[in-house]
Amino acid sequence: MTMLTAMCAIFAITILVIILAYIAVRGVSAINIEFLIDTPKPVGEGGGIGNAILGSALMTLLATAIGLPIGIGAGVYLAEFGDNWFGNTVRFLADTLIGVPSIIVGIFVYTIVVLPMSRQSGFAGALSLAIIMIPIVARTTEEMIRLVPKSMREGALALGAPQWRVTWNIVMPAAASGIATGAMLSIARISGETAPLLFTALNSRFYNYFFDQPMASLTVQIYNYATGPFEIEHQMAWAATLILVGLILFINIVVRFLTKKKY
Amino acid sequence: MGNKITVKNLNFFYGKDQALFDISLKIPEREVMAFVGPSGCGKSTFLRVLNRMNDTIPYARIEGEVKIDGKDIYKAKTDVVALRRKVGMVFQKSNPFPKSIFDNVAYGIRINRMHSSKKDLAERVEKALKDAALWEEVKDRLPTSAFGLSGGQQQRLCIARALAVQPEVILMDEPASALDPIATQKIEELVVELKKKYTIVIVTHNMQQAARISDRTAFFMLGKLIEVNPTEKMFTNPDDKLTEDYITGRFG
Fold first, then answer.
1. In CATH, what is the architecture of B3-95+161-247?
2. Helix, strand and coil percent figures for chain A, each rounded to 5
3. Nearest residue of B to residue A262 by CA position?
4. Closest CB to A154 among B88, B91, B165
5. Which CATH class, in words, describes the domain spanning A51-217?
6. Threshold 0.90, pTM exceeds
7. 20 to 30 A Cα–Cα from B14, which one of A134, B47, B85, B122?
8. Domain residue extents for chain B
9. Given CB atoms, is A147 within the 8 Å cutoff of chain B?
């Protein structure tokens, strides 16, 4: 039994290590400073992914700013007050939304934001990502808050703490590292999304700091490079992939560090 | 001395199930009253009626009258937060917050804004820890996690936490049931010490414990209050046959 499960564990991480190693080997040769800060250029003239990194960062940031508070708030509601028909409905819908393919979220945002504005925009992209993020954050937050023992809440209530203070400064801190892990996973998830960005944020060849304009992203840039006809483009796709994976890994490590258990 | 708590014709229901039947009881000020009885007899439920802790249970319903200092605590306009500050509680399983030792004791002081300055807060924390006979053991490690303490220390920390908000009544729900004999003895000594200032109601499964520390004992069975008497009489010459059978270990 131990052997069998150990082998499964080894198999699982071996695949991960192979993927990471393969990306690293293929991507590392094309990475240099210019690649990291340049905008895309016609084939043969070099070019890079600087604007795509910025675009991804901006959209992920805005999506997190929208999605995280709503998601955590919804999760707190579900855990603390959601044992009724409304909570059950929200829970069911959130689970359904988690299972919806991300391209459908893209089409939805395309219809309600892009068409009325008659322009693709970084905002539309960020909104798609936020919509993907909210149910994930809500459900993980709920699970984590439910893990906080009832005795701890009662301890605080018995000291004369009103319900909101119990939630805010006993339950939330006790669940913080779990909530942060859920948030981190959802950020990692959305920073790897391509489909919902294809027709919401579209892409851009330029540095763009404004959310009302089309915006480049790493994932869409990888898609463009990878589907191009030239070998040099494929190399750049690998390099951009390596950067993306590196960034996600970085987010993971930072959050791990920040949420290290103090007590 | 007067009666701190007066309960009249109390009935308590969880949904359709009645858990307490027509209980009337007076708890005198600055005494220790012990609640004894077999598991599931309603003594913990009754204890939680006294600081409205059952409010958190859906479908819980109450009939009758519970007065503390002459005021009905189940009136609609009762300030439950103020009530719980006045009627502190220590639970069966110690439940420190995931905070430092200092912050655990400071929590109730902070949420009730009882301190005038940082220095005042520190003094209140020190006093509470001293009153709970824990100060000497933790004074050099106040900023460390409360989970680093032993089980007995954690329970005394929870007592300190309850004392810090200066309650008048302390409810204890089997506070020593998970502790070893030495830690139990410390809690018992503490209870006897605390009764000089507080009214204490303690639920216990341990007959000797009830005999050692309480002034009066109430015996519950199947949701009914069978007998209340001074502890000495209860353990030597009880009025009721059921009580006698129970405390002599013939059933339960």
1. 3-Layer(aba) Sandwich (3.40)
2. 75, 0, 25
3. B145
4. B91
5. mainly alpha
6. no
7. B85
8. 3-95+161-247
9. no
